[in-house]
Amino acid sequence: METAHAGQTTGNGPVRTRMWRNGDLEAENFPIAELGPRLRETGTVVWLDLLAPADTDLRLVTDELGLSPVAVEDSVTARERVKLDRYRGYVFLNLYAPETTRDGLVLHEISAFVTERALVTVRERPGFDVDALVRRWDEGPRPLPEGAAPDTAPLVHGLLDLVVDLQLDTVQALDGDADTLEELIFDDAFPVKEIQRRSFRLRKDLIALRRVALPMREIVDELLRRPSRLVPDALVPDFQDVYDHTLRVAEWTDELRDLVANLLDSRIALQGNRMNEVMKKVTSWAAIIAVPTAITGFYGQNLPVPGFERLSGLLVSTGLIVGSGVALYAVFKVRDWL
User: Where do transmembrane segments lie in this chain (predicted)?
Assistant: First the structure.
């Protein structure tokens, strides 16, 4: 078996290549120029990974596989929607692998051309773990039956399975963020700025994940659909498992979106309740202060009153002030206004 420790570099970014013969890995990291000759060999399947490809590399692959200029343009255009397009002799896929970072959700775009015996992945930016994809190919799924025609279906399964698993990991991480947000909302400290920051980021990440995860159901279903099914019978259970995972991601994302909406409604209600509590306390203290003010104002009239210029008058007014204040405090405390 031919091997190389690192991918070759042509154009703007590194290129990785692999060739399998009858299901066994035979060559790795060979030049792009060898794509045609290796595909013309018997029983071979080839994979190319192009990172920020140069025009010459794209032209070589396009001419060799007979790709449409429209599909090639989509592969190097950023922020294309998630989709599966059928062309004569091949299928074009556009997928997004999510990654959770400290700054929020990051989506890594992956375009793929799938022919009967070639898989070409195109990425404009690094970030997607290609080594994890290679490991997934090496570890499964099970090979096609003895004597079956060479097929890229196992490679496509590995790619889809990895992307959907990353989406599952992401929605699980967002679920943890929702739990943290719930704890903050019902915390006695009620950190308003932190709650607003986390809720905005969580809603933004959920919208982004939902936009790239929901179409995955249609993509896998299209691959499995008869009579033009692209998946051999031996791999149907493996693709069906990926389809089940796409349903789980979609359902979990929708549930989280509803949960976050309910949490935000709860935050508004709790904030209103806390405002009412503050207003009750302010009103209660204002009432306690108002009674002594009324008493001292009454004794401040320019008229003789009981106890005028006597010690008994001072004691009576002081007693009224202290007694009324204590009585009002006790009443408000019993009613839980303070």
Answer: 282-299, 311-332
The answer to which of 121-130, 141-150, 227-236 has the lowest mean pLDDT is 141-150
Domain spans, the chain:
277-334
For the chain, the residue count is: 338
User: How does pLDDT run across 169-211, given as a tens digit for each residue?
Assistant: 999 999 999 999 999 888 878 788 888 899 999 999 999 999 9
| Alpha helices by DSSP H, the chain | 35-39, 55-65, 69-75, 130-139, 153-185, 192-213, 215-224, 236-299, 311-334
pTM: 0.79
Residue 315 tokens, joined: 């004691």
Going by pLDDT thresholds of 50, 70 and 90, the confidence category of residue 12 is: low
Structure tokens at 210: 């939902």
pLDDT at 1 > cutoff 60: no
Q: What separation in angstroms does the CA of 209 have from each of 109, 168, 197, 203?
A: 13, 10, 18, 10
Q: Which amino acid is residue 274, in one-letter code? A: R
Q: Alpha-carbon distance 96 to 166, whole Å?
A: 10
Spatial distance between the Cα atoms of 10 and 108, rounded to a whole number of angstroms:
21
Q: Are the C-beta atoms of residues 124 and 76 closer than 8 Å to each other?
A: yes
Confirm if 113 and 63 have CB atoms less than 8 A apart: no
Q: Nearest-5° angle of CA 62, CA 162, CA 261?
A: 115
Residues 53 and 12: beta-carbon distance below 8 Å = yes
Q: Is the pLDDT of residue 147 over 60?
A: no
Distances in whole angstroms, Cα of residue 50 to Cα of each of 107, 111, 121, 134: 18, 10, 6, 14
- DSSP class of 234: G
> Can you tell me the distance from the alpha carbon of 233 to that of 133, in angstroms, rounded to the nearest whole number?
23
Find how far residue 304's CA is from the centre of its chain: 78
* Helices 236-299 and 311-334, packing angle to 10 deg: 160
